[in-house]
Design goal:
Chain lengths: ~290, ~290
């Protein structure tokens, strides 16, 4: 199966599963349900669930077993976007070309939508069919550690604190390894966990995920400088206005592009150490490094 | 062991465990860590973890096994308070006589503190020592269902929507069964799950938890009318100002007090059906119904 087919078919399945999960919720308040559906159906590249499915696909052909963990991951990512966009955080009115949750609804509804998605992700993991209890527990632990105070949340807080000062390249990498990297790593690693990867395979995949995590953030910073705001569905140049330390401000645009190329080639090199067909992960690596939005 | 001893000793252990959990977190951003500790050490009655421990105590003498689920429950409760207090929600400056999180820190930090506590609760449950994987999964499912879109979150959203209109007594009970009741029920039920209650015992305890859930909310509404704002550490009369439908506005103060007495006696009656010594649960029931803050 080509990457195009894998990607297209998986996205259709993911979109359907996300909407169906929200539509079949019991006892849910209608405005809350609407807000959950609104943010989950905003499209997007679905990079995290695709990484999870592509990694799982190294070990098993039939991907359905990993679908629930994949949508749980997308829910956690979506919750983080809803909260990041809030007036008290990044104060963004648009995301993926559509009004952000607090603009389409209101702030209280957006806060609760984020809270709801985060909680629902753990419920889905606990109920994931075809996955044994021990594996479910491993996934829940990984998701919580990556998304919580030892991961994404601390990265987010550190990012806010860093706006008040200039940070070193090392500190910047540390912030982003938590803020963006943790969930990307968890996506790859959970695919490996569900696929029962050997400890060697797991180690390689974990290393790989860290490389693409940094690559992702560098490209994010590059896009804030040279990206097309129409394609991105949001304003660019925000980092400069905020005078934020970014890869481009610390390394120049050319330096950042070179750094991106380094991380990407290290990622490919790690994939080449695996015996499986890594076409889909290679394509996702390229997608992360070369994306225009 | 008397209730006073149980309650006092358990609270000391809970407080210590909460603080220790935050202090031993790895890779946590310092301001985030401070905000987590601030809200968790605000004191409070610790009703939910005490209900969990008291229920577990019906089945086992040594309570330590249930301590992690108990503090995870308190973390979820605390997260819900932090987010409820936000300007976009109830906009409260004080809670338990101290500045609310967004006042003591700032809004972004408060939002992240809530997010962090919610996520951490699931991490703790996934890592709870001495509890087998299948029981952990049951607990995670129960906590997520009670706190998420099918539980507390929908209750919170429904409560906000209800402010715009007058609701019936039935609708009010439904809102509060989700908003406040769900976590109280989960507290009692998880004590029963960890204690391996029989299905009959579980059913009785679940019923009991629903009665005290409603009793809790009725007393909340009564305190908003006749409570001492100094003891409560927050302003009273807020419901009236907002023209909210409450048990007192729908039933009069006397009617609400009578309704409270009904639910409380039904709760005692259910406890009397159990063969175990239910002293601690009886005392907690009285505490809920007769509390002055």
């Amino acid at each position: 199966m080509s990457f195009e087919t894998f990607s297209k078919e998986s996205k259709v399945k993911l979109d359907q599963a996300l909407v169906k999960t929200i539509e079949t919720l019991q006892n849910v308040e209608s405005r809350h349900q609407e807000a959950l559906k609104y943010s989950l159906s905003a499209g997007g590249k679905r990079i995290r669930p695709l990484l999870l499915l592509a990694t799982f696909g190294l070990f098993e052909k039939e991907l359905d077993k990993a679908m629930i963990p994949a949508i749980a991951m997308e829910m956690i990512h979506t919750y983080s976007l809803i909260h990041d966009d809030l007036p008290a955080m990044d104060n963004d009115d648009y995301r993926r070309g559509r009004l952000t949750s607090h603009k389409a609804f209101d702030e209280a509804t957006a806060i609760l939508a984020g809270d709801g998605l985060l909680t629902l992700a753990f419920q889905l993991l606990a109920e994931a069919p075809e996955i044994d209890d021990t594996t479910r527990i491993k996934l829940i632990q990984l998701y919580a550690q990556s998304a919580g105070p030892s991961g994404m949340i601390s990265g987010q807080q550190a990012d806010i604190e860093a706006e008040k000062t200039t940070v070193s390249l090392e500190a910047l990498a540390e912030i982003h390894s938590q803020k963006t990297g943790a969930l990307l790593t968890a996506s790859v690693c959970s695919g490996a966990i569900i696929g029962k990867a050997s400890s060697d395979e797991y180690r390689i995949l974990e290393e790989y995920s860290k490389k693409i995590g940094i690559a992702f953030q560098i490209q994010d910073d590059i896009l804030d400088v040279i990206g097309d705001s129409k394609k991105m569905g949001k304003n660019t140049g925000a980092d400069q206005v905020l005078n934020k330390s970014t890869y481009t401000s610390l390394l120049t645009l050319e330096g950042a592009q070179k750094e991106l190329a380094n991380y990407t080639s290290e990622a490919y090199e790690l994939l080449s150490q695996l015996h499986q067909d890594t076409t889909n992960l290679e394509a996702l690596t390229a997608l992360i490094a070369e994306r225009d939005a």
